[in-house]
Amino acid sequence: MEVVEMVQRRLRVRLQTVLVLLLLALLSNGCAARPVHPGAVNKFDSDAYDALLVTESVIQSTKADLTNNVFPTSIAPNVKDALNYLINSYNVADIAYKAYHSAALAGTVTPVQQANVTTAINQMSNATSTLINAKAGK
User: Fold this and answer.
1) Which CATH number belongs to the domain containing residue 13 in this structure?
2) CA–CA separation, 66 and 79 (whole Å)
3) Is the pTM here over 0.85, yes or no?
4) Which has the closest alpha carbon to 48: 132, 122, 121?
5) Which residues span the domain enclosing 113?
C-alpha cells in the first residue's frame, strides 16, 4: 500500500508541475495564438483568468489530497502551510483581477490596475511553486 501511495503522490506532484508550467506558458508572450475567453476584454484579461482557473484547480486537488491523507505525515504540515500561502496569494490575485476586469469592461482601466494583476499573478505562481516543493518533501 505504501508503494501505491508513493506512486500516487509522485503523479500528483508531476501533474501539478505540468499545471504550473501551463500557467507560465499562458502568461508568457509566446507566438502561439490562444483563444480569448468569452467575456474577456483582451488577451491579458483572458490569460489572467486562465491563471486563476489553473490555480483554483491546484488548490482544490491539494485540499482533497490533504483530506484523504495522501501525503506522508512528515510533509503534510508543510503542504498545509504552503497551501494556505497559495490560497492567500490566490485571493489577492482574484481581487486584483476582478478590479481590473470590471474597469476594463467599463473602459476605465489604469496601468496601475494591470500592474497589480501582474504582480499578484506572479506572487500566485511563486506560491504554487512553494506548494509543489512542499509536496515533493523539499
Assistant:
1) 1.20.120
2) 8
3) no
4) 121
5) 2-135
